Every structure is written in C-alpha cells, then in structure tokens.
Amino acid sequence: VHPNVSQGCQGGCATCSDYNGCLSCKPRLFFVLERIGMKQIGVCLSSCPSGYYGTRYPDINKCAKCKADCDTCFTRNFCTKCKSGFYLYSGKCLEKCPDGLEANNHTMECTSIVHCETSEWSPWSPCMKKGKTCGFKRGNEVRVREIVQHPSARGNPCPATSESRKCIVQRKRCQKEGKGKKNREEKRKKSNKDESKETRQESKGRAARRQNREQRENNNKMQPKKRKAPNKEQDLAPVDTAH
C-alpha cells in the first residue's frame, strides 16, 4: 500500500491513496480490486460485479471471485449461473448432465426428462364414406386423442393421435336434400294445421256450451210460476146447521 493515504476520498471510499485507489469503504459497500493492465485498483461498490460474490465481515465487506466456470455465484462453491459451454446443476457447472437429466440449451441447466402424455381415446365415430353415413355398405370410422404433455428433447415422442378402421353398415338410400327439406316443411305445415283445427274445434265447443246455458236460463225465466194448491182440509170443514 502506498504510504500516501487520504481521508478525503470520493466514490464511496472511506480511505484511499493516489496509487491504489480505495483502501477501505464506507459502511454497507463492498471492496473489490479491479485490474487495469498490470495494476490493481481498489473500488467500493453497492453490489459485487458479475463473477464475484460478496462476504460481509465486521471490519470490511469484500467481493471474492467465483469459480472459473461460474458467471455468477452465491458462494464460491454454489454457482447460480454458468459460463458458456457449461450447464448448471445443484449449484455446480458441468460440461455434461448426469444420467436421467438432459441439457436445456435455453436456460443452460440440467433438467428432468419429460415424456409425452396423451388423453384417453374418444369413442368411435359413426361409420362414414366420403363424408356421408348412407348410400354405401363399407366405410370407415375414426377415433382421436389429445396431447396433454409435449415431450422434452430426450423424452419419448408422442404416438399417433388418430386411428381409423373399416366398418360395415346396412345399406340404405340417402334421402335427397331437397325432398327431405320439402317433407319436413310439409310435416310442419300439417302440424300447424292440425293445431289450428283443434283450436277451432275447442272454440266452437265452448261457444255451443255457452249458448245452451244461456238458452236454458231464458227458458226458465219465461215459464209461469205454479200456483200453490189449496188446502183440502179447510175446504171440507163441517157446516154449522144448529139454526
């Protein structure tokens, strides 16, 4: 250390010299040596640069170098990111991943091998031929399944997601589209006509019943009231012949 030590330093230094730069740092800052050509200069930083990890001591906080294959590290023996050409696994940088793992070139990590997974088969479709379900005897029916987990680079590939097989149906003629539409329209009109007919019949029945009821009421009003029959016992009372 150069003997010319100054207390009026800049850049976070607590003490410094013209030749060596920072000799100690202000509280909570990390001291690190930066190489400039053949010379090392002390600097004080709020966090350690790439390739270094920080260690706090009672008297000084220092930045120490990571291992040569580490780009960043938590401690010297625990890497958090590897340099190009290495894969991170459990805090270590490896040129080749262990058995049962594969190299992920996107994250530069050793990851578990993922195999393809598919859903269950769907039910077989109706027997068809050229998109139709009639007008033939032999056709094909298919079933499908979906991929629910795509495989990783070394994982088992996905199997086929569709199957087809021959099928036989009872031969029947295809109904013409125009004729079928016409039949459906006629059925609809007939149904509407039947409903209207039933509605008219119900209305006529209600009107007839109402008319009969009114006729009976009028007849009752026009009939004369019956006179009360005389009391025969009073008419046959004995006549007084005492005179």
TrEMBL record:
Entry's SMART domains? Answer: FU, TSP1
Write down the superkingdom of origin. Eukaryota
The entry's function note states: Activator of the canonical Wnt signaling pathway by acting as a ligand for LGR4-6 receptors, which acts as a key regulator of angiogenesis. Upon binding to LGR4-6 (LGR4, LGR5 or LGR6), LGR4-6 associate with phosphorylated LRP6 and frizzled receptors that are activated by extracellular Wnt receptors, triggering the canonical Wnt signaling pathway to increase expression of target genes. Also regulates the canonical Wnt/beta-catenin-dependent pathway and non-canonical Wnt signaling by acting as an inhibitor of ZNRF3, an important regulator of the Wnt signaling pathway.
Q: Where in the cell is it found?
A: Secreted
Q: Which gene encodes it?
A: Rspo3
Organism annotation: Edolisoma coerulescens
Q: Where is the Spondin-like TSP1 domain?
A: 116-170
Where are the compositionally biased (Basic and acidic residues) regions?
A: 175-219
Give the family, as the similarity comment puts it.
Belongs to the R-spondin family.
Q: Which BP terms does GO give this entry? A: positive regulation of non-canonical Wnt signaling pathway; Wnt signaling pathway
Cellular component terms per the entry's GO annotation = extracellular region
Recorded GO molecular functions are:
heparin binding; signaling receptor binding
Chain ranges of the R-spondin Fu-CRD domain: 11-110
Q: What is this protein called?
A: R-spondin-3
